Amino acid sequence: MYIELHAASAFSFLQGASLPETLVERAAALGYPALALLDADGVYGAPRFHKAAKHAGIKAIIGAELTISGQWAVGSGQNRTTRSVGSGQNRTTRSLPTADCRLPTKTWRLPVLVESTDGYRNLCRLVTRMKMRAAKGEGAVALEEFEGYTTGLIALAGRPILDAAHYGVGGLLDRLVGLFGRGNVYVEMQRHLLRDEEAANVTLDSLARAFRVPVIATNDVRFAESSDRPLFDVLTCVHHKTTLDAAGRKLARNAERYLKSPETMAQLFADRPAALAGTVALAERLEYTMADLGYRFPT
Amino acid sequence: MFAAVYAAKGSSFDTLVDIARDFSPRIETCGSCEVVLDLAGLTRLFGDAKTIAGELRRTTADRGLRVRIAIARTRTAARLLARDRPGITIVESGDEARALENLRLELLEIFTEPEPLERTNPESRIPNPVTITLRRWGLRTLGDLAALPADEVSARLGQTGVAWQRLARGEDSAPLVPSVPEERFEQALDLEWPIEGLEPLSFVLARLMEPLSAHLERRDRGAASLHIRLHLVKRDGVTREVHERSLQLPAPMRDARTLRTLALLDLESHPPSAAIDRVVVAVDPTPGRVIQFSLLTRPLPSPEHLSTLMARLTALMGEGRCGSAVTVDSWEPGAFEMKSFGPGLGTRDSGFEKSIANPERIPNPEPRIPNPERIPVPERIPVPERIPSLAMRRFRFPVPACVRVEGGIPVRVVSDRRGISGGRVESYAGPWRSSGGWWVAETRAPYSPHTPHSPHTPHPPHWDRDEWDVTLSDGATYRVFRERDTDAWFIEGVVD
């Protein structure tokens, strides 16, 4: 059995080609008991996703793909040297990046899943902080900002952790384990039938065993069916302000990022049954849904 | 004395510059609407400042321009007055400060803004920070700023404030920099009667190239590209058309014979469709080549010889079939395109050769081991061993193959191509799926033994295939792929 825990809808602006209702409808047709929606830097699609999932009778798991700043540019507001009045001594204070900071030099995406109400609260706070200080579409959150805001959140560490040269090989997974706790970090493995992906999976598997972190399989879904790939390519072109002829390698290499059936995923990961079973175990652990929002009107 | 001529909105700036050049050889263009003329020595030619201003205004009016003219001892004062006052303004020498004292402070922004104040939307225009500061101080006119003590302004605004105050006093911060007119490298010849064929054209081209080459040599320039424009006249003697060709040259050159040969070779491939009665040859100039020969590098053929050779080859083989193959930004397997051949670029000093020559430059493949105090010692961290280098020889056109598949996996590969014995699949990796180019309407001609893919057929525009790397019982490793839409199998290459 397999449950898709990494899917993005069209609410990931220009990075997803299917509406939440379409994803839910397809998931229900494929016999999924649950589905997770992780849109880019927000939970905009969560209400519609929840409503559709409730209607279809499947569990709607909430999460988001957070844009993480790779490193801060020199002279940013992270470290500031100030002079204490009266003492005459220089001291270095460490503060969170503020609006006057320069944008990070490189970003990557960290998928997080909401486990509890606290997790939803923390996720919303992180997203709000990111959005408040940057122009639309340019926000990023630093890993340091997760301190104290990881309760109820599950982090999925995928291929980006191998590309984080700033932290060294495995250093980023070490950092995530330190922030979220060993029980709240999963290494996600994907198979889109790409030649270079399998080598990355071998490395991810080794890292997961080294850090004693469980591995799960995901598909990083961007559209409901493989026939939606043309729409996804066109959205990619709009995102990059280019044309289909000029987009080149900005486009998808194939049409494998669709919502595959549990059977298809079982065939793809036939050599890793634990990664498939891990998705079911994790989905059972993720109890939070939008029904638990518990919104109270101000009095 | 300087004259500032400010053209109203909608005026042709080129016309204004032409008129200014008729009056003075030393003019400076300021933005896209204003010209400053150096009037030194013009009094003997035209008369006093008033006469010059009147003549300027009359000439511009004749050419359909509405202008404001100001003449003053400094360029700064002339420009400020031309912006502020309509008609003609003439300031006697020494009266600049008094003439400027009542002007608006915002006028100084013309020295920082690329566009004139009148042409930008006042609501969307962001005021200059210095202007904001000065207005907060209660200053409204240039006279207010000019009257402040310079050291106090410097203490509060730094050198920027000092510069603004000098401008407010009408003082120039730099001498006039004359704008040099663009020099055109072009030759044209009108023929008394139309000519047909390239042989008579070669004599015409030789006659045009000689003065063009001499012109380039005088200016120490070379031709970066060559443009040929042939005016054609049809047999009816009435219909006319223009045949244009442009050649990008691999290196700046100015040899007349080479330029003529290149033009002729290109016209051989793209001949004009009718008789020629006018020939225009132009080049885009670029600084001439400075060649420093080296004792350590192999001498290369001169760009003139090389480009002539490439032009001959292109005329023989066709457009886009000569040059160097380069990869393109595409996921399409084996996609490449041809670019112009340029030896010595990225071959001798490539990073690859440097890394081979300096082994210590190769990054250390050892991974960073995480801090053992924070995490348990890993059971096994993959340490990349020295991977033997593999190279795949790709067949220029994929070889059709018969592949037996069991359970979705190729188990036997057979081909009738000589040199590929085929056999049972001993080990495999794959499938690797690749697809793209779906938006191209052109239907794809399938590869098959019966309809071989012609070498002259353009590369298939869209693709959808699964690749496998298979090691056969004969010991060879091949890359095979299956076209998903036709279910046809091909051998793409062999791993050496």
The N- and C-terminal alpha carbons of chain B lie at a distance of: 80 Å
Oligomer: heterodimer
With helices defined by DSSP (H or I, 4 residues minimum), what is the helix count of chain B? 11
CATH architecture of chain A: Alpha-Beta Barrel
Mean pLDDT across every amino acid position of chain B: 80
CATH class category label of chain A: Alpha Beta
Spell the H/E element sequence of chain A: HEHEEEEHEHHEHEHHHH
Low-confidence runs of chain A (pLDDT<50, min 5 residues)? 72-104
Largest interface: A-B, 29 and 26 residues
User: In percent, how much strand structure appears in the residues of chain B?
Assistant: 25-35%
Could you give the order of the helices and strands of chain B? EHEEHEHEHHHHEHEEHEHEEHEEEEEE
How large, in whole angstroms, is the Cα Rg of chain B? 36 Å
Let me know the largest β-sheet of chain B: 6 strands, antiparallel, barrel
Helical content of chain B (DSSP H or I, runs of 4+): 25-40%
Our estimate of the beta-strand percent of chain A is: 15-25%
Number of strands of chain B: 17
The structure class of chain B reads alpha+beta
Spatial shape of chain A: globular
Your description of this structure?
Chain A is 34% helix and 16% strand. With 299 residues, chain A is α/β, with parallel strands linked by helices. Chain A has a single domain (2-71, 106-293), classed as Metal-dependent hydrolases (TIM Barrel, Alpha-Beta Barrel), CATH 3.20.20.140. In chain A, the strands form 2 sheets. Chain A has a 6-stranded mixed sheet with strand order 1-2-5-6-7-8. In chain A, a hairpin with a 6-residue loop joins strand 3 and strand 4 (90-94). Chain B has 496 residues and is α+β, with helices and mostly antiparallel strands. Chain B contains 11 helices and 17 strands. A 6-stranded antiparallel beta barrel of chain B has the order 12-13-14-15-16-17. Chain B has a 5-stranded mixed sheet with strand order 2-3-1-4-5. In chain B, strands 6-9-7-8 form a 4-stranded antiparallel sheet, with helices on one face. The longest helix of chain B is centred in the middle third of the chain and has 21 residues, at 198-218. The termini of chain B are far apart. Mean pLDDT of chain B is 80; it is low at 345-381 and 443-459.
